[in-house]
Amino acid sequence: ENLNLEGKDKIGELLARFSESSAVASHVRHVSLRFCDQLEESDLKTLKKFRNLESVNLDYCQKISDEGIRELVRCAPRLRYVSLFWMPWLSGKAAGFLRGLDGLRGL
Q: What is the mean pLDDT of the chain?
């Protein structure tokens, strides 16, 4: 299943709400957080509850840095696809963290 939260306000609260329902969280394979200006790096910890998560879109999430990508890798080790368009502030460190995803097929 897809969870599309693109451009939503109060994104941290929304992610927490969806993750609290194990019935929902266990079926989610793709989360799109494109243009979520209020997404904080700490919100990425919530993705840990989406146990079958394979794909995440963080395009233009302005508050996500290299350290946020590190947190993403820790919380969602089964990711196969990650989208990071319009995030020129990320450095080679982020790429290094993403190399830790054994199943990564596309960036």
A: 96
Which residues are CB-neighbours of 63 under 8 A, at least 6 positions away?
37, 38, 39, 40, 41
Determine contact, residues 73/98, Cβ cutoff 8 Å: yes
User: What gap in Å lies between CA 93 and CA 71, rounded to an integer?
Assistant: 12
Which residues is 31 bridged to in the sheet? 3, 56
pTM over 0.90: yes
